[in-house]
From TrEMBL:
The keyword Signal applies. This is Uncharacterized protein. The keyword Translocase does not apply. Its main location: secreted. Keywords: Apoplast, Secreted, Signal. Residues 1-23 form the signal peptide.
């Protein structure tokens, strides 16, 4: 089963796969159209909370500049204070307020959180080859030896082909319920499928063909990857084991950010990302600033109390 939807010229769907792997429970950002469903609600399961150690697996050769964009995002969630607004920390605070703290009140373990960058590992020699199955992505996550409550980010470079990347999916998150950790994957789409998985900053493959936004860090690959990664991180912490916050059937659910796909600023509608900010020096479009100064286009967060999508700008 899958919930499909058309947003801003990109066809998207959230679904899960039954194929077993170390990260057995998956949510994917895929490319297709969506019916409306019931409200996104809490189903009683655990969320990630407390200290969340994050491990990053770099699969391919990533430049220092690309790595810095990702690391700044992770460290800006809670570890480093925001120096400017709107900030990545504000985006995270919405996730905490709307989802994690409410889970705690309901007994789901969602107390205060602190996201900590724990380890980084580079696999520049393609130990599993340059073409990966979803099971191998999970294998890479498990190789980081995460503990209970951890989050592993598997990032694949422009030279790596992942099963279905660009044709049916742009990213995924899942978990090993037995070990108690979550994982998320996103890839650099600039060479393979920018119109599908970095469409905000490239000519979209579907829908309106308006001029794309300028990438906030001047890199379509990493900036597009960050849009997907942020959405997957939000899903991984608020619905890691398929039984916390979601909308629809648990195996094909919309989650905290995927319920607001394509929404980045106020006044958004299909084909228009909304009123976002523009860097006067570079022309890059963004709605959040990291503690290290990098800029990001982060997805809106669904807030059932409104109800609606909360944006930073």
């Amino acid at each position: 089963m899958a919930y499909k939807f058309l947003v801003n010229g990109a066809l998207l769907v959230i679904s899960s796969l039954a194929r077993p792997s170390l990260c057995q429970q998956r949510r994917e950002l895929e490319l297709v159209d969506t019916p409306t469903g019931d409200q996104l609600t809490y189903h009683g399961g655990a969320v990630l909370t407390g200290d969340i150690p994050v491990s990053i697996v770099w699969y391919d050769s990533f430049s220092p500049e690309k790595k810095a964009v990702v690391v700044d995002f992770v460290e800006s969630l809670t570890s480093k204070p925001a120096l400017a607004t709107p900030s990545v920390a504000q985006w995270w605070s919405t996730i905490h307020k709307v989802y994690l703290s409410n889970a705690n009140a309901a007994g789901g373990g969602g107390g205060d959180t602190r996201v900590l960058l724990a380890t980084q590992a580079a696999d520049e020699q393609y130990s599993l080859g340059r073409s990966l199955t979803l099971g191998q992505v999970s294998q890479l996550a498990a190789g980081a030896a995460p503990g209970k409550g951890a989050l592993v980010l598997v990032l694949t470079g422009a030279d790596v082909v992942v099963e279905g990347f660009g044709s049916v999916r742009c990213g995924l998150h899942g978990a090993d319920a037995g070990a108690g950790y979550a994982c998320a994957w996103a890839g650099d789409a600039e060479r393979q499928c920018p119109g599908q998985c970095a469409w905000q900053f490239a000519k979209p493959s579907y829908g309106p063909q308006d001029k794309p936004l300028a990438a906030p860090n001047g890199d379509v690959g990493v900036d597009g990857m960050m849009v997907t990664l942020a959405s997957m991180v939000a899903g991984a912490v608020t619905n890691p084991f398929r039984d916390a916050y979601y909308q629809g059937e648990k195996d094909a659910a919309l989650e905290a950010c995927t319920a607001c796909a394509g929404v980045y600023g106020s006044g958004s509608y299909p084909g228009y990302a909304g009123d976002v900010l523009v860097d006067k020096a570079t022309g890059g479009s963004y709605n959040a600033i990291g503690a290290g100064g990098h800029k990001y286009l982060l997805p809106a967060v669904y807030d059932a109390a409104k109800p609606g999508c909360s944006t930073l700008v």
